[in-house]
Amino acid sequence: MLTLIELVGIFFFAVSGSLMAARRGFDMLGSAFLGGVTGLGGGVVRDLILNQSPATFAHPVYFLPPVLAALCVYAFTPAVQKLHRLVQIFDAAGLGLFCMTGTMKALENDVNPVTAVLLGVITGVGGGMLRDVISNVTPDLFNPRDVYALPAILGATATAFAWHFDVLNIAVGTGIAGLTFVLRLASIRFGWSVPLAAGHWHRQPNIPNHGDGPRRNF
Amino acid sequence: MLTLIELVGIFFFAVSGSLMAARRGFDMLGSAFLGGVTGLGGGVVRDLILNQSPATFAHPVYFLPPVLAALCVYAFTPAVQKLHRLVQIFDAAGLGLFCMTGTMKALENDVNPVTAVLLGVITGVGGGMLRDVISNVTPDLFNPRDVYALPAILGATATAFAWHFDVLNIAVGTGIAGLTFVLRLASIRFGWSVPLAAGHWHRQPNIPNHGDGPRRNF
Amino acid sequence: MLTLIELVGIFFFAVSGSLMAARRGFDMLGSAFLGGVTGLGGGVVRDLILNQSPATFAHPVYFLPPVLAALCVYAFTPAVQKLHRLVQIFDAAGLGLFCMTGTMKALENDVNPVTAVLLGVITGVGGGMLRDVISNVTPDLFNPRDVYALPAILGATATAFAWHFDVLNIAVGTGIAGLTFVLRLASIRFGWSVPLAAGHWHRQPNIPNHGDGPRRNF
């Protein structure tokens, strides 16, 4: 059951990776690879830091969602782009699930709570960051107008508290993942933003960035 | 013997890293570093995922080819660039060798066949991808007009099948590496291409990408 | 005592990460994250290669300097920018310290001296490289007009020699870190440079690079 939800979460993360590949003019194999990195990368980084062999590589089934995502994007590119809102909703569900399960996995490995929260957040947001770094675009994670990391931090922190007070069960875990999901959707719906890194630069005019063109000329 | 071939493969991968450093206006030390990442990076990522200390760091001899490559590119830049075709041929030989040995090393560590193929491919193509990501250019691996990953996938898959049916010996391994090598050269010779990630975008005009200028102004 | 110096070194590395976040228009959370990557990334990569759980994640105290750095940059952005020279001085101190302690940690894990030197250099310069790669700018490490890697290589080599001849104690270690620090500052003061990767391209006119705009338009 949890594995099924996980696979669905990986699939929707992978769709965002394959859409990036489409937007940047990459090929089909790059699309599957980028989808895999987006869907599985956060968990792999977490497991490497926990000094474990990444769980992803233990079962071939985890590689199925990225392949499916690449095929879907290939077959229905315009439709998938129109379903942007739907992808965002499922991506938010994946974020909620992964930051909760990532924190749990870290806590099960006896790390300190601060590290567990950080590893939970990395599990949730790491794949998307790797997607952007590999695609040679600036990570959307740092976009002050897109509140993505904050719900993950809150969800991971709530998980660590529930674990500490020994009240983490399926119901509480589902509640935390749901809360993260709702917070993420609310941030999109109401246009929340995070303060800039530079407190005094708010009024500086934006300079166009030529680095992230929509399409790559090979 | 195998180590010698490996060192030659690392050297030619490293040449492509040092040529990238030359093209981007990096310094000598960056050239050696980028050569090392290109030649050794794929194997290091494979070993990290296998939760082993990277084999590369066990013998200082592995660091010799990148240093030699950086010196060659420094001393004979125009000549090395004219030998572009020769570099491609040796790079193809390295690709054939590394995707075969990478898959074998993964299988020796008792991973499932799908993961072994993936790790074999990563051993072959990972170094070049890291080279491009670190140099801040879009990975050439995703270029639909340059068929690079496909021969590696076929070579790694053939290795896994040969292993499964217990027929993998030196002759078969050499044959698989040779087949990968020939496929890669054929793809260059005949201009093969891989379908785009976006199936319906074929006719969209290319927009020039300003992100990957030939030379960096520090 | 050593931990205190280490925390100060991490803090000043992190300041350079948070300043990059400010320059690129990232948000506060991205600033803390990028500061953490800059301050801690080199050591994490070293520990992953040594096949150990990264020491950074064992104590929450290591995450304090990046948070403080992000707050400082947020509160006093123009002042921190004016203190550019001061940041460089402390960054040089961090470089001297980390390349020495990184080499020591590698040698304590029984790696060969060449690998130990390389891991020491990675400890010193890896965080800054990760900062640039994640921020989608060309790594400043490769800038021929900014001699950054060379003092680290010399410091790490001196540490390995002192270890080999069994004369590495607190005084010698401090001396080596101090020497690295002085070399780095001298390279800034006297405008030293490293030869280009391409030996014959010295006179080619620089082509402006559009890839690294000062500010990202999300």
UniProtKB/TrEMBL annotation, chains A, B, C:
<comment type="similarity">
    <text>Belongs to the UPF0126 family.</text>
</comment>
<dbReference type="Pfam" id="PF03458">
    <property type="entry name" value="Gly_transporter"/>
</dbReference>
<feature type="transmembrane region" description="Helical">
    <location>
        <begin position="57"/>
        <end position="77"/>
    </location>
</feature>
<feature type="transmembrane region" description="Helical">
    <location>
        <begin position="113"/>
        <end position="134"/>
    </location>
</feature>
<dbReference type="InterPro" id="IPR005115">
    <property type="entry name" value="Gly_transporter"/>
</dbReference>
<keyword id="KW-1003">Cell membrane</keyword>
<keyword id="KW-0812">Transmembrane</keyword>
<keyword id="KW-1133">Transmembrane helix</keyword>
<feature type="transmembrane region" description="Helical">
    <location>
        <begin position="170"/>
        <end position="186"/>
    </location>
</feature>
<feature type="domain" description="Glycine transporter">
    <location>
        <begin position="4"/>
        <end position="77"/>
    </location>
</feature>
<feature type="domain" description="Glycine transporter">
    <location>
        <begin position="89"/>
        <end position="163"/>
    </location>
</feature>
<protein>
    <recommendedName>
        <fullName>Glycine transporter domain-containing protein</fullName>
    </recommendedName>
</protein>
<keyword id="KW-0472">Membrane</keyword>
<dbReference type="GO" id="GO:0005886">
    <property type="term" value="C:plasma membrane"/>
</dbReference>
